Amino acid sequence: MLRFMTAGESHGPCITAVLDGFPAGVPVDAERINRELARRQMGYGRGRRMAIEKDQVEIRSGVRWGETMGSPITLVIENQDWKNWERQMSPLAQDSGQAKPVTRPRPGHADLAGALKFGHRDVRNVLERASARETVARVAVGALAKCLLEHFGVFVGGWVAEIGGVVASTEGLDFPELLARAERSKVRMPDPQAEEEVVELIDRCAKEGDTLGGVVETRATGLPPGLGSHTQWDRKLDGRLAQAVMSVQSVKGVEIGLGFGAARKRGSEVHDEIGFDSETREFIRHSNNAGGTEGGMTSGAPVVVRAALKPISTLMRPLRSVDLVTKEEVKAAIERSDVCAVPAGAVIVEAVVAFTLGQAFLEKFGGDSLVEIRRNYEGYLRQVREF
Ligand code: EPS
């Protein structure tokens, strides 16, 4: 079973991920991971923190001479900002009291619920771990999942579909073109006109001390039919994708394919009619409203996942809150933050989708090594072709 855990605080020394169950024999290099980390750091609307960080992964276990060994892979990304926080975030008792406690929880952040749950009088003990800094680890893990999937012609890519209500026009653009345009855009939007409007909107929001959310879209192509399973609730791939994506900081909604739109149409307009290509001897679909999953399994069509991100909850013009200690009405705490992190969100959602698909891929094709997985994969494809 492929699984991972992350550890680390936003202003601690580093963020760490341990990935277990990754097969042997997969070529991996730090530069491939670093390219994904750099993509996550880009985006107009980020705060000053991104000027401090230059995320680079250190592979501390599980890889030898450029290939995975099948043992747990430890990935470490240092926080450059740590040097400014060594005393405030020190593990040593002798440093206690080196930072003023944060007692004014921000609406929308984990602050209040976390303080009540863990009994913390200093909200920093919650916000440090709740921070989206943690997503640097998820992107690194997602990069490894991509390294595996790419061997089987599976490609996962995403972009920003809208920010602050400005919707990118994507009509007539195919997947490679969408990605190429998004990659060139400073807000990861495939539509230059929407990009221009969004940049203005971000500038306006920054001046007004406000923040912006948006919608990101991820697609995965090249997947065989039958990943996931209809037989049990926790094995349904659409449910697992939704959980993984919903767990990304700021995400408040997940759609697969038509998503909520399907509820407003008739069955005849929604379901993807089935055809058969007698040349390739493959079942085909005349549309992909289901977003690549049916009955909790891949259908063979591209998987399409959309996520809605709420606006960042740290406002420079803060909302009302209550001081945890005095119980007086106050303005919420102001932490240095971003105006808009949706472009980074697109890269993060791409990574968690890649991980979840990688997990389902390994469940289907098993194997401890790339060679064994390939044998199982090719055997299955033959079985499907000869159906
Ligand atoms: C974040 C607040 C900001 C963001 C951070 C997430 O950090 P800071 O408080 O240090 O300015 O920049 O995101 C990252 C550090 C990152 O790598 O994406 C928050 O409160 O969630």
Structure explained in plain terms:
With 387 residues, the chain is of the alpha+beta class. 33% of the residues lie in helices and 20% in strands. Helix 1 (30-41) packs across helix 5 and helix 3 packs across helix 4 (124-130). The longest helix is centred in the last third of the chain and has 24 residues, at 342-365. It starts with a strand and ends with a helix. The model has no long low-confidence stretch (mean pLDDT 97). The structure holds ligand EPS.
Quick structural summary:
With 387 residues, the protein is of the alpha+beta class.
List the helices and strands and how they pair.
Layout: E1 3-7, E2 14-20, H1 30-41, H2 49-52, E3 57-61, E4 63-64, E5 67-68, E6 73-78, H3 111-118, H4 124-130, H5 135-150, E7 155-163, E8 166-167, H6 175-184, H7 192-208, E9 214-221, H8 237-246, E10 251-256, H9 267-270, E11 274-277, E12 282-285, E13 293-294, E14 297-298, E15 303-309, E16 320-322, E17 329-331, H10 342-365, H11 370-385
Antiparallel strand pairs: 1-2, 2-6, 3-6, 4-5, 7-8, 7-9, 9-15, 10-15, 11-12, 13-14, 16-17
Bound molecules: ligand EPS.
